Batch of 3 targets.
Target 1
Amino acid sequence: MARLHEYQGKELLKQFKVKTPRGSIACTADEAFKVTAELATPVVVKAQVWTTKRADFGGIQFAKTAEEAKTKAEKLLGLQVQDFTIDTVLVEEQIKIEREFYAGIVIDDSSKCPVLIFSSMGGSGIEEIAEAHPDKVAKVNIDIVEGLRDYQARNLIRATGISGKLQMQLAGVLVKLWQVARKYEARSAEINPLVLTANGEIMAADCRVTVDDYAVFRHPDLGIEIARELNRPPSQLDKIAYDVEKNDYRGTFYFIQMESGFKKNDGYVGFHGAGGGGSMMSMDAAHTQGFKLANFTDTSGNPAASKVYRAARIILAQKNIVAYFGSGSGVASQEQFHSARGLAKAFIEENLSIPAVIRLGGNLEDKAIDILETCTKGLPAPVEGYKKDDTAHFCAERLRHLVETFQPDSGAREKFEKPDFDKPYSFETITGKITFDHGVCAECDHHACVEACIPEILKLENNVPVLAISTEEAKTGKCIECLGCEMECVYRGKRGAYIELPIAGLDEYVGEED
Amino acid sequence: MAILINEENRVLVQGITGREGLTRAKLMMEYGTKVVAGVTPGKGNQTVLEVPVFDTVKEATENVAGINTSVIFVPAPLVKNAALEAIDAGIKLLVIVPDRVPMYDVLEIAHAAEQNGARFVGPNTLGLLSVGKGVLGMIGGRAETARQWFRKGHVGVTSRSGGITSSISYYLSRSGIGLSSIVHVGGDGIVGTPHPEVIKLFQDDDDTNAVVMFGEIGTTQEEQVADLIESGKFTKPLIAFIGGKAAKSGTRFSHAGAIVEGNRGTHESKVRRLREVGAHIVEHFDDIPKVTREVLDDLNLQS
């Protein structure tokens, strides 16, 4: 889920004319000084991090003067809180609070609609308040098409014992909160506390909005870099992976780094799952064998082979992993040889130097395992493929065995070099570029590339493979990047085909890590 | 009988001319599903896989008699329109395969479905299959393998994970336990036909003697199933596995979620509630066939 910071949420509320305390963000102590000087009132300096109970670690500080605000901001900025570093504070005027309330909207799975919750008691510990004082809390389902009507909000507030002008004022805010949630497709949107000030105004003193990950693409104005729920800022590798996912709609690719900075003997494996449930089970199996997981990756939903290739390359970019474990549900509906080709290509280009066990059970599993094992023969490390009758536990055991018995070459890891072409014939695909070296192809007599091409867009001309369609058609999706032409050529040809599938930022990342 | 799909379904494929739509329409037909028409806006007036393709769903239902089911394979941002179009044309069962459908779009679809007495499975579903009768979506991948993997019988399967729907069903079949219908309810937070809805359908299905459920952490689906058992609305034996034990119980950032769900949603709460009402909780995934066999034998039920 894409979470917004307090100050971002408040910006959205302001668009809908919900009052918030005057103030501004500051990324340096000097900025905090400036903001306070301009406000010319005592201020509160609030750390902008995604944790609850900020007051507990001193994330909410009060200051009377600009000088004091500067000192307080200095203390907060750069502070490490859980896995986050505070890089922004919100400096706001202090307000005199008469009374605190709570307002929240969340999508409820059982009623399949947004639910609005209002509590006449708000502030810290709202969940406990709700449990202890059920009579102070009221909920109403919102009709997704009709929206929230003013009278519904008033009746909701009335149910908590509030009447008159206050009821009307609060209702106005609730309707606006709904409008914010609807416009920005929030999975949850909360104001806690919603306050009544000494001047009789209703103000949002805090705000938390979480936008639906799947809807982030419709809200570029929110500037969300990675539409994922993480308990830390995204790592460089997370960002590289997210870029791949964002630019390729075919199937799913999910990557998060779970650990970094570990050593070779810490026993971390690169994990490549397929499908959520099967991945969870497979991770449990790896844990049982004493492995720790460096990352979580899921490629599923019939992804293009090129996407699986990129996922594998990204997993292998993690320094000091001792093994590669690929395992999903074990009985996949998708045709598994696509994944096998993607993995084999990545392993070849990485000149794989750690053992790999891949559970490829599912449709056409025999073909998948044959491709995987044959194409990776001769690599420095062993690669084993397994089928649907082999459990995740068995496969994790095999991996444990390989890690224990594998003797790595002492020699330095050879780098894969893009082939030199004698007579290159190239065309672009959706995300890459295919080249046939017609100098090599002329010597080949079985042309496995043309036979392997699933969309049948290749033909032989003068005994060498060429496109049977226009280059424009190949680029816009007729070539499905099944990698058949290259991998079949590796499998039984003369290695005359090469597909370049760039991954933005990956080479630079690996260079920095080394 | 069987649930959701049997010989009576006459199926429309929305997005039939696309990469997935075409491949999966072929699978469905080869398995025996009666696919009778396709729709792709702007690509009407052609024939694909020997069925007519129309520009709109309305045009399809006017020209081809008896369409009562639609399987949707269109890119996620277009799903809402496709689903609303099908519901508006009077189709009563939708299977929404794509993932990454925005949640507010799903809420709108749910609203329209309720108003029109329609039901949808998904989004983010591999689909569903009634053994020997038909498949909607892409379970099995190929008709030939679907026939090999899934054996006919009297155990129903409902799962929150697509891959696991196939693997549980395959492992049950391999150990001699036959299946009536298998359903992937969809992997998202909001789905049209969650576990409790599938469970109610299995209750009314004469072909089903017991149900195997694969649950996961998050949402209140499994707890709702426990509520159904408690209130006597589901009386058949339930064998359940809940995934995600090792996963950190989701850090909650929204108080609102906690207030609405209370203590529901965690691995512990799901297992506890299901145990309380007498469901058979399986601890190790690989034991599902064994436990299912024991439960059936104890009750003298046919598999």
Note: The first strand of chain B starts at residue 10 and ends at 14.
Target 2
Amino acid sequence: MSQPQPIPARTLPDKAAVARALRQFLPPAGVLTDEEDLRPYECDGLTAYRKLPWIVVLPDTIEQASRVLRLCDERNIPVVARGAGTGLSGGALPLEDGVLLSLSKFTRILEIDPENRTATLEPGVRNLAITEAAAPLGLYYAPDPSSQIACSIGGNVAENAGGVHCLKYGLTVHNVLGLKFLTMDGELITLGGKTLDSPGYDLLALLTGSEGMLGVIVEITVKLLPKPEYAQVVLAAFDSVEKAGEAVATVIASGFIPSGLEMMDNFAIRAVNEYARAGYPNEAAAILLCELDGTAEEVAEGIVQVRELLLGRGATEVRASRDEAERLKFWAGRKNAFPAVGRIARDYYCMDGTIPRKHIGQVLTAIGKLSQEYGLPVANVFHAGDGNLHPLILYDANQPGQLARAEEFGGRILELCVAVGGTITGEHGVGVEKINQMCVQFTQEELAQFHALKAAFDPKGLLNPGKAVPKPARCAEFGRMHVHGGKLKFPEMERF
Amino acid sequence: MTNNADISQKLADAVREAAANHALLAIQGNGTKAFYTGALSGTPLDVTGHRGVVSYEPTELVITARAGTPLAEIEAALAERGQMLGFEPPYFGEAATLGGTIACGFSGPRRPYAGAARDFVLGAKIINGKGEILRFGGQVMKNVAGFDVSRLMVGAFGTLGVLLEVSLKVLPKPARELTLAFEMNAAEAVKQMNAWAAQPLPLSAACHADDTLYFRLSGTESGVRAAQAKLGGNAVENSERFWREIREHRLNFFQNGSPLWRLSIPSATPPIDLPGKWLTDWGGAQRWLKSDTPAADIRQETEEVGGHATLFRSLNQKRAPLAVLSPGLISLHRQLKLAFDPHAVLNANSG
């Protein structure tokens, strides 16, 4: 049982016959096989990786989704589940010989329970739609990934999505109470519900962030929190990224848990000032946005103390938002940072390492040096309070070699994160993107344990194969290639 | 005994040897929660010698300690720096270790508002059933590389691996805590707890015992004062002791001989019509029942409201470590157990 069973050798089944079998129980528009219909599914939010799926299915009901899985299981056809397709690590990258199972028709909010403060949702419900539905009750759903307008809760669970507010309110894993998921052989499993825990192993935690490798999530119950009475943001400018990094550690150590603590470097500041008229100090080497929420009294007391802490750490300027309009204006720049950078560069590559907060200054300095080495600019805009970096590497895919250089640069950043005691991904997932860096973070035995765990749920290895956990052979190959500084992609290699 | 010792190799050797010989091992801390797990089969594997805080950096809000470290030692180290464990873990005996605390995964009164034991686990080093030392998660706040094996260890009662080290996120101690008491019956209390939980108040515990609703506020001086003005009630003297007695099951309620059941149910569920004595904690989400009612009746009534019931303490009943699961879940549990412990070496129940 220690080694996962390999995918049985098979010849590709007849596509027309499989499509016919699927149309037996799916509506005609729910089975796509023509290239023009398949094209929109060729990539997720990580557009550098594209593959045309073999067949796309769009079931309407759990029963239909279950039958799709059963059919694929019987015929040894791999399956990739897809939510809104906003993921940033290629977790929903389709397979040329596999079925792409889209959950985009599962968009109903099944229940908002005001007494127990829970929402029960189909996986295709958009993250922001949960908060909108709960707002009349004075409640909201806390995790707020920056793609929250578009991303769906099913994908949030599959990736354990974070966001600005998870510093205080936790990641997706801290806010999910129950799940229903389908195993590869089509069985419906229920975990938890509206209770704070469920019997047996903590499969709820295990499924969260499992990147579609263990099961297909078809229903989610989340907890809703009371909307804070009041929130206020402090904007602090620094003349070096090191000082800003130290200020982050100071705020955290002082006993505050801000509801958000974000950092932007000069490149990002200039980009958003131009794009969103954010009004950030243009000359600052870095700014911090520190939001406190709670009762009006708590916030007022906290803002005074945070201001002093930041000034004590060498802030050249500290502004507190004077009203709700100004608070939103302070945030508008941060929220528009990615599109603002996107306007400057033809393409950008968003990284996602997490490090101990005390190393922020040091790691940003090292990233700056790497930026010079690779000749590619970097903008840093990230969740500093969590130590979760998001360096944006700017490149131009039309220039030969730039994408490969950007990827190698990104890989170096992730290895740097591991070297200072951090991780290669804080909230975006491994997907196909960081599969090589998994070899840096984990030993062969640890990877083998992941494979055994996967096999416990999916003995044939048909669910989202090739993602998240590399095969030992791939790591051996990566290690060798890494030493020689060659290209990092081996699409032809056998993967998990 | 030294305060700081790393015996992980010795422990791993013992597991490897047991796996080779198809022998059974019973992981042993200080036994403070043996009442819950029941008797285990096999040779004891004493992990109490594997102890000591490996690293603690208050500015990172992270502590990493070996499994045999006494919980009291960890909490004392945190208190010195004005920090605490957010899940307010029950000890059930002074000698409780970190490993036992995480393996059982119990959480105290702060759980509904701050999070459970599993919510604070950032990483773990374990020995799997093959005797391999493996590390999952880490010491950073956000980490989605690989499956979340460290959280899977919480509440797994050592059946998937021997815990060696655990990294926990810690929280700053609130500047001020205040407990308010209100006289009311259980039905009113459940309504009140849930109504207040829906409002932006600095809540940190809510329980109902002996016709009194106890409500704890934690936060800044001014925030707690403002909330008190809004809620009214009577301030409770020496409330730290009260919450400790709830957490440790030392209140009179827990003292008589009937079996003690734990019901985990949706928090707003009205009082359940089962004979016995009740105590409501976790803002309504955890109900304690002292009752001689047959287990099947208690389980059925609890499932009807969307929850599950566990026999927590009993003088004369044998108990299974895991609650009742659906057939699909049982199969997944078996496969997972095999994935981590293929020779079924670790913590087999003898009951």
Note: The two ends of chain A are 16 Å apart (CA to CA).
Target 3
Amino acid sequence: MSYGFSSPVPASAAMPDAIPLRALLPWAVFGLVLSMVLLYFVGAEQGATALVSGHAVHEFVHDGRHLLGFPCH
Amino acid sequence: MAGRLLARGMIAGLLAACLAFLFARVFGEPQVNLSIAFETARDAAAGMAAEPEIVSRSVQASFGLFTAAALYGAAYGGIFAIVFALAYGRVGRISPRALALLLAGAGFLTFVLIPDLKYPPNPPAVGQEGTIGLRTATYFEMIVLSLCVMGLSILVGRRLTQRFGQWNGTLCGVGLFVVLTALVQGGLPDINEVPADFPAIVLWRFREAAIGMQIVLWGALGLIFGPLAAAVLTPSVAGRHRAG
């Protein structure tokens, strides 16, 4: 078994550099808004509230809504 | 960096959702079908006409279920990646893969298990149409409060760890989490709309399948995201060397 020139200490042994908050913030806002919209359509659209009229969205994701634990009907 | 992590989180969530879909298809769908059979028989006995099928059962159980799981997986994959990006380098010496698995466990506890212990998943035929507003509001409140309890316990636990050492600080944090969870769950209204003659075994098997689906989703999310994040965060692995 041969070893390379890299340090035998794994990278996890040193405290890794954190991502600066200023760089993180815009992506965090974008990601959270996008995720909330997705979760709304899976979990609540055409249940307690409705943006789209009818029952098509609710009926399409019906089984997933029940099995993922959202209130339904 | 953060954008790449976010994209990889959503991809990991999608892949995890594929596995969760397979699990739900095998273990969840039979219970959904039994519940719908109960509902149909009950409505027929009451002399009510059958509900019109807007989307066929086979579509609901395949494309519909897959779509729901995929959107859910991508959404929580994104949230997960943001929390990961915030935690990495701020919670101590831990590898990306280990941190991803740790956060997946915390995510499952916060977003699924604690809320579900108060408001468990219900199959069709359980739940009255008139209370959907109340049930939706309390369910999402429970998730938000669960998130607050988890965040507060971690912050307090870390502060106490600095003062009283790892063991005592962690125990205090866990104790605070248990007490706050009990208070929140006790404070929210109870909802029980299970029909008296609904088969208990179907309800139990359905809830087992629902929780199992989430364990598959969050477990896979943590395990898949770890290596994807490591490739972004440790450029030497990918053959790139960057300062800072």
Note: Confidence is low (pLDDT under 50) at residues 1-7 of chain A.
